[in-house]
Amino acid sequence: MVNRRPSEYEMKILEEIVDWKNPSETAISKIMNVINLPLDKGYKLVNKVPGVEVAIQKSIGGIINLINEGAQWSVRSDAIYKEFRQKGHKVTKGKNIFSLDLNDVDQVVGMLAGKYKTIAGTEGAAAGLVGIAGIPVDIVALLGLNLRAIGEYATYYGFDINIQHERLFALNILGLASSPSDASKQVAMAQLVKISQEIARKRTWAQLEEHIFVNFIKNIAEKLGQRLTKAKLAQIVPATGALIGGGYNIYYTDKVCEAAYYLYRERFLTQKYGGDIIDIYINPSQ
Fold first, then answer.
1. C-alpha to C-alpha distance for 214 and 101, rounded to whole angstroms
2. pLDDT digits over 60-79, tens only?
3. Of 117, 132, 143, nearest to 235 (Cα)?
4. Which of 87, 159, 179, 250 has the smallest CB count inside 10 Å?
């Protein structure tokens, strides 16, 4: 731990993290429930074609780890560290970032989500012109793009995405963003907490493999393939015109980037001040 107490800015962010983890039903969530209704109906219409869903899901689920490996390999940590140095911070490796105030890190991160949402929308619109044949390629591209976004967030906040358990954490963020219900989101969030706790205890990958949650990699791949296939199949039905093209890609990428933004900032703060930081400063009576 670098400092004994978080800065005023870091305290504010801790409160925001707690609020993000415990959202109330807002106007936005109500709107998304309305959007999901025609999405589900459109999916049911398209899925009457025998074998379409299963074929696409298998093509995605079977290569999710390869997509993750390729996406994280493409993250240029040296270029990110250079951005910190250009802002006047002495950063040559991830560990140096933990000596900074979160406000300094957030300023370097900037509008990272905007970059990825723009790319996702452009790619999705292009794939939408191809029709059903372009869906598998579109999903692979969307997953790869979002895993790379997660990898960049991880690197900006001081974590080494080349480590296997960090890549497992990245996959679980995709699972969280893909969760269609509050219950499934809670399960995904609990899984992320378990992984971050194991990482904080500096467990080796061999030890992590012995833990039951590693078996969830296959489950995550299956759920991702199912949910994204469902969304993409529904987009080709006229009744779901609002989501045709890049619309869903932008929406999904926004959810992924938001989750990565909050989760890695939380891990950054727990790395600096200890894993019980929220209980100490935000919920002292609990």
1. 33
2. 666 777 888 889 999 999 99
3. 132
4. 87
